[in-house]
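note to self: dont lose this again. the chain is below, predicted strucutre after it. 759 aa total, dont forget to put it in the shared folder this time
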Amino acid sequence: MRRPWTFTRRIAVGFSVSLGVALAIAAITALALSSVLTGNEHVSEEGIRHRLAVEQLRRVFSDKLASQHAHELTGGPSHLEDARQARLQFQALLLLLRTHEDGQKERGLLDGLEQAERGHEDATQELWVARSQGLSPEGLEGLRGGQEEARYQTYEALDWLAWYTEDTFTQRVLRADQAERRAFWLIILVATLGLLVAMGLAWVLTRALWPLHHEARASEARFRLLVEGVKDYALYMLDPEGRVVSWNPGAERIQGWRAEEIIGRTGEVFYAPEARAAGQPRGDLERAAREGRLEWEGPGVRKDGSRFWAESLVTALRGADGRLEGFAVLTRDSSERKRLERAQHLFVEAERLFLTEKEPDEAVEELTRLLVPELADGCLLFLLTPAGELVPRAITHVSPEKERLMWELVQGGGGPRPDRRHGAWQALRTGRTERITEVSPESMAEAASDAEELERMRELEPVSYLSVPLRAAGHAVGVLMLVSQRPERRFTETDQVFVEELAGRAALSLENARLLREAQAALDLIGVAAHDLGNPLQALQLMLGKLRRLPPSEPEKLREVLTAAVRHTQRLGRLLHNLLDLSRLSSGKMELEVGEVDLAELAHEAVERHAEQAAEVGSQVVLEVEPGVVGRWDRLRLERVLTNLLSNAFKYGKGHPIELRVERTDGHGRLSVRDHGPGIPEELQRTIFERFKKAPAKGEKKEGFGLGLYIVQQLVEAHGGCVRVESREGEGATFTVELPLAAASREVDDSTQPPGMVH
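---
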């Protein structure tokens, strides 16, 4: 017999049914919410990790390229190790992506990327091996083309992988949104059916939902840690109006703003003034909202106003209803990569310049125009002259007004001076680069010699400064100075290494030109020597033949022929002695045999020795000596000095008196020879003491080496003295030799000439 339904039983059954329904509602609700949250969390975390891994692939590949370029520039093994570590990290990321690959298409993209990267590595290794084996420039250029093609293919494969990852992420988000919608309506339906028991089961639902709430907070904390752990990228969010609502440490490191300073401000502060004036910030957001994402590359602005080259990815964030919620922005500082790309381009242009220009001086001058404005705002090129002077060869500036100001500053006394602690002479003497990252008012005041020069320097508005010596074969031949006037263009160590490499190539080109000129001068010397030595030898042979044919009964003719033969013999001796002294000077050392020498006695002997030559040219030697001018010198070498000076005087002052004077000055003996010939033009007076340089006389035949005055100067300086010339056109010339009365040096060292001197 069935038991009756009592009230208590009915209550118990009803309670049990209600409890069952409540439990069912709670279970269904819990499962639906868990499915939605877990699915969204999985899509969000997995998608972001996947996208970050793809972006990290691009960064690691770029780091590898930068390390390889740095190794090519500097040859440092540390850069090669950095490139190897970057490639290992690249391969590790590829392996990580393969473990989470989504279907055959992504597998194919990863395979293509791996193959392209391997092709680039093989092309790079092949180029390095070819360079070490001395392959021709044409062959190296072909290998560089293959390397560039492999690099482009790798970047293209990275772009395809990034696109596919972004597209997959978007599709997954959409599917998750659809699943969330279905779950939402299911929850509403079940909640409606269980509305009567909701009050009784509230505490059950609360206890059931609490763990889910805790897990959501933990997931949010993990996501925040992930975002804040990204240091190499600026990752922040904007609201639909373009105001900053979140800010990670990477953004603070790159942009310079702290979170409390930037949150709530518009993102326009990250754009350059000209971009803001053109409406680019609003245009970028509108395009990102319209297309879903936007990639752009251009100049960014930090908090302090300095600029950097930025790569940015802007992604529009939309809610389940399609309404725009804001924008996610990912920015990277790619300034170093741009610097390396510009350096590579400049190297190619400089190489082409040095190969196509016939004159190295013109090629080096053109180099200044190549560096402006690509690397600097102003460039000055100084070259060392044979006389040891540092003179400006080329000055270039982006502003014609400031270029004129730089010329005025250099030519008006503000140029390089040996007594300055900074500048071109300092770099030339030390052979080391001088780099001032930030030019301060104090450093300008220290470099200026007076208030006027300081004011001109301030008008140039220098911000950063770089002075690089042009060194080749162990010595400097000039200085290359770069000036920047923009705060965002301060010279870095990378710029220094690059300019030093360019300066080395320019100096090598100049040094090769100098060696070629010296080789040509040596060939000319051989030709002139053969001619000038042959003439007196031939004349001497004719004289001796004539002397052999003359009868002894004609003593006057015999004396005349003998006199002419002696004259040619003396000329031949002078030529041979000059060549011998030149050989000793060129070898670097020449011994001096010092002893007590009386200049007055030496002058008398020289006048007697050249009496016949003076009579032949119709010149009277007027001798004025002060007795007792005695010092410790090399008598033979001083005779050579006096002989060369008198020979020049007879040659250019024939028919006029020659004045020879010996006197004592403060601690020196002075010897001067004056002629009354045509004189020497002022522009030639600095060069007549150089090798193979002569002061041309009117109607003069092309004979002589142009070594006499050069040897005079070298022999006088070997004694610790000096020689100078004073002349005006049409009034003759006076050569003055001053010798210290103290003991002379025992040897001559030709290496004491100014570095880079071209004879």
